[in-house]
Amino acid sequence: MKTSMVVAGLLYLLFCMAAWGGIDEDPDLVLLTGEHWVTASEVEKVAYLFGLGNMLEVEQAMHGKDPAEKVSKNSIVPVLIDGLSHLSTRNVREMLDEWYGTNPDQLKRPVIDVLYFEFALPNIGSKAN
Fold this sequence. Notes:
By secondary structure, the chain is mostly helical. It is 64% helix and 0% strand. It is globular and about 35 Å long.
């Protein structure tokens, strides 16, 4: 059961990346950066965030209510779940748009890096909406 949930989550993430253009003739997966983010459509941005959110949901379901206790100490999952769970997909998209807009010198920085260090880590334990 757990394996099928992981496979389903990964397939969904790959589907979202394919819809974005991350998969074409070159089978290598693309680490999305600000360069991709600022040129993406709103639909592509939302697809990326939904894929990431679904992956986090699968991880959380596999590890229980407190994934921090069961996920490796080196995992980004507990921080992303705790630090972003109070935000909507729209909030995160707007925050990323604003962050890359005000930090054009950081466009080579991966989106997941910005999500982790700029948004999730500083907001661990935040319950505000």
